[in-house]
Amino acid sequence: MGFASTYLKERTLFPELIKEAPDKNTGLIIVVPSCNEPGIATMLDSLAMCMEPDCKAEVIIVINGPENSDPGCRKVNINTILSIEGWKKKNSSCFFRLYVIDADSSGIKDWGVGLARKTGMDEAIRRFDFLNRPEGIILMLTAPSIETISG
Predict the structure, then answer these.
(1) Burial 38-76 (b: 16+ CB within 10 A, else e)
(2) Where are the domains of the chain?
(3) Please, are residues 68 and 112 in contact by the beta-carbon 8 Å criterion?
(4) Which of 91, 106, 116, 151 is the S-S candidate for 62 at Cβ 3.0 to 4.6 Å?
(5) What is the mean pLDDT of the chain?
(6) Is the dihedral of CA 22, 28, 33, 36 positive or negative?
(7) Is the confidence at residue 107, as pLDDT, over 70?
(8) What is the mean pLDDT of residues 66-88?
(9) Considering only CA atoms, which of 121, 106, 91, 146 is closest in space to residue 8?
């Protein structure tokens, strides 16, 4: 039983979302909620230019969209997922492992940035719990907005 087992059993919305086990030396997990974010690759490029930490690192991007969002939002979200997967292939030697969670199609009505943050943080806690690493660091970033990219 890990340090967060009770929390994970009682408070998470989803079962395990990332099936690949974390590297045993993972000490940093960056969570990024993303909705209608076509420039996510720019953020990944910036992260890849950071100084490599002494521990292994992961980035978890949670794609989300409210049920009543514009149909164009889902199209952008699908393109964002494809962009992330393409970035991952081109940057396979990057110092961090990259995961994308498509929560946009979950069927939950009130998706928003808060629920996306919770989903990503719950998954990060689950991964640190698996490693029995309560001192693991979870960092929250905001995906770049359309205005940031175009302006």
Answers:
(1) bbbbbbbeebbeeeeeeebbbbbbbbbbbeebeeebbeb
(2) 36-43+61-145
(3) no
(4) 116
(5) 89
(6) negative
(7) no
(8) 88
(9) 121
